[in-house]
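Incident log, entry 3
Record: rRNA methyltransferase 2, mitochondrial (141 residues)
Problem: checksum mismatch between cached and fresh output.
Input:
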Amino acid sequence: MDESRTDQKTYDSDMHFIIYLQQKGFSVILSDMCPLVSGITSRDAALSVELGMRALDLAVGMSTAVNNAPLQAELDSSGLALDTGRLLKPGGHLIIKLLESEDIKEFNQICKPLFRKASWLRPKATRSCSREIYLICQGLL
Ligand SMILES: C[S@@+](CC[C@H](N)C(=O)[O-])C[C@H]1O[C@@H](n2cnc3c(N)ncnc32)[C@H](O)[C@@H]1O
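Fresh output:
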């Protein structure tokens, strides 16, 4: 088969899958993304924030994260906001792993108005030398 047709078919099926996921929505989204740790604390923290923001955007929609306000989008019958690209259902939960730094405070400011509850968790099992911490956001408004 012609390579360009194969690419187009793959693209079409990826787009169908993305639209399907967006329409269905998720009850829980967990981001375990983490950059390859370089040992340069500020660099690793900045990359971790970048990945966390990407997860937040996917979950609640770019405009919501940027505007720092509950979603004012048109909702479909299941309550999903198709035009903003948010993948989390209303009432859904979001968990994001981050590397601790001053910059992660920004996540609290963004998430607090969007969720019923947003809090930080450092599991007891986390090694003492690790800077990993989890943002737990419950109940998307
Ligand atoms: C701690 S591991 C997660 C392991 C995963 N929970 C599993 O069980 O396979 C961190 C992951 O973040 C991913 N990652 C790092 N940078 C990324 C990026 N820019 N986009 C997507 N994933 C990324 C890595 O590929 C790696 O698999």
